[in-house]
Design a protein that fits this description.
alpha/beta, Rossmann fold, six-stranded parallel beta sheet, globular
């Protein structure tokens, strides 16, 4: 497939799981893909973000997939330390801001661009693990998507968002899955209309739509890719 031949993409959070699947899918469509994770740059540090994007050069496609729960677990709001709240908000929302700020100028020059933010079902509902900062940051990504769609649309740039359901895609989600036990796992799957957990490739397929010409008049949207979990 060469639908994205000649396009340069940056995908964040490519160490494993969803980010890795997105990068692979974009490469399969012919894009030149630059994956970035903590080994390449700390995306919460402005200088490191500028340096990374400066080395890449012009960007046509940006997928903000970095983030996660940063190893945290839910606790009562009165017990949440400042540093834990800040860590999650920076990893999920602030990193998306920094990367979008770095990528936007070249997209404006080309008068073409695709930005896809990977939020979460928690951003449209609640965190299954009770992490207040996570659901807040993911909801913030949805608002960020709408605002940037309004701002960047006149330059031929679309900005959309995906809210994945539960996917066993990294060590954190695997620990979460195991913590439910057999009965909890059964109830989770029964709460999904398709009666199966998602795969990273399910999210990558949504990204492929948003970055293609087939979605050229779609912007500011958030789609839940969750097998129908949001229906319940």
């Amino acid at each position: 497939m060469t639908g994205l031949a000649g396009r340069t993409a940056v995908v964040t959070g490519t160490a494993h799981g969803i980010g890795a699947a997105i990068a692979e899918a974009l490469r399969a469509e012919g894009a030149e893909v630059h994956g970035v994770d903590k080994a390449q740059a700390d995306l919460t540090v402005p200088g490191e973000v500028r340096a990374f994007f400066g080395a890449v050069g012009g960007v046509d496609i940006l997928v903000n997939s970095a983030g996660g729960v940063c190893g945290q677990v839910g606790r009562p709001i009165e017990d949440v330390p400042d540093e834990e709240w800040n860590e999650i908000v920076q990893a999920n929302l602030y990193s998306a801001f920094l990367c979008t700020r770095a990528a936007a100028p070249s997209m404006k020059e080309r008068r073409w661009g695709r930005i896809v933010n990977i939020s979460s079902g928690a951003g449209r509902g609640v965190s299954l693990t009770g992490i207040q900062a996570y659901t807040s940051a993911k909801a913030g990504q949805i608002g960020f998507t709408r605002q940037l769609a309004h701002e960047l649309g006149p330059f031929g740039i679309t900005v959309n968002c995906i809210a994945p359901g539960f996917i066993r895609s990294n060590p954190a989600t695997e620990r979460q899955w195991q913590s439910y036990g057999e009965e909890g796992q059964r109830k989770l799957v029964e709460g999904i209309a398709m009666r199966r957990l998602g795969q990273p490739e399910d999210i990558a397929n949504g990204v492929l739509f948003f970055v293609s010409e087939r979605s050229s008049w779609v912007t500011g949207q958030t789609i839940s890719i969750d097998g129908g979990h949001a229906l319940f």
